[in-house]
Automatic annotation (TrEMBL):
<dbReference type="GO" id="GO:0033177">
    <property type="term" value="C:proton-transporting two-sector ATPase complex, proton-transporting domain"/>
</dbReference>
<keyword id="KW-1133">Transmembrane helix</keyword>
<comment type="function">
    <text>Key component of the F(0) channel; it plays a direct role in translocation across the membrane. A homomeric c-ring of between 10-14 subunits forms the central stalk rotor element with the F(1) delta and epsilon subunits.</text>
</comment>
<feature type="domain" description="V-ATPase proteolipid subunit C-like">
    <location>
        <begin position="6"/>
        <end position="68"/>
    </location>
</feature>
<feature type="site" description="Reversibly protonated during proton transport">
    <location>
        <position position="56"/>
    </location>
</feature>
<dbReference type="InterPro" id="IPR002379">
    <property type="entry name" value="ATPase_proteolipid_c-like_dom"/>
</dbReference>
<comment type="function">
    <text>F(1)F(0) ATP synthase produces ATP from ADP in the presence of a proton or sodium gradient. F-type ATPases consist of two structural domains, F(1) containing the extramembraneous catalytic core and F(0) containing the membrane proton channel, linked together by a central stalk and a peripheral stalk. During catalysis, ATP synthesis in the catalytic domain of F(1) is coupled via a rotary mechanism of the central stalk subunits to proton translocation.</text>
</comment>
<keyword id="KW-0406">Ion transport</keyword>
<comment type="similarity">
    <text>Belongs to the ATPase C chain family.</text>
</comment>
<feature type="transmembrane region" description="Helical">
    <location>
        <begin position="6"/>
        <end position="27"/>
    </location>
</feature>
<dbReference type="InterPro" id="IPR000454">
    <property type="entry name" value="ATP_synth_F0_csu"/>
</dbReference>
<dbReference type="GO" id="GO:0045259">
    <property type="term" value="C:proton-transporting ATP synthase complex"/>
</dbReference>
<dbReference type="InterPro" id="IPR020537">
    <property type="entry name" value="ATP_synth_F0_csu_DDCD_BS"/>
</dbReference>
<feature type="transmembrane region" description="Helical">
    <location>
        <begin position="48"/>
        <end position="71"/>
    </location>
</feature>
<keyword id="KW-0813">Transport</keyword>
<keyword id="KW-1003">Cell membrane</keyword>
<keyword id="KW-0472">Membrane</keyword>
Amino acid sequence: MDLNVLAGAIMIAFGALAAGIGNGILFSRYLEGIARQPEARGTLFGQGMITLGLVEALPIISIAFGLLVLFDIIG
């Protein structure tokens, strides 16, 4: 088995796993904040969407590099 295939698959898998865990933590804290202080819902929503973009950036980059390694474009 070629190590590029294994490395690419691991990068893609960890990228997807990181996105799932990050989104779960983000939205659990978002709902907890709304439960504690309902009048701050708008502010929390805006901050949550900014944080969602930051959380999603790293897995997307990881998946892109994983695909590059998987198809032997780099490495």
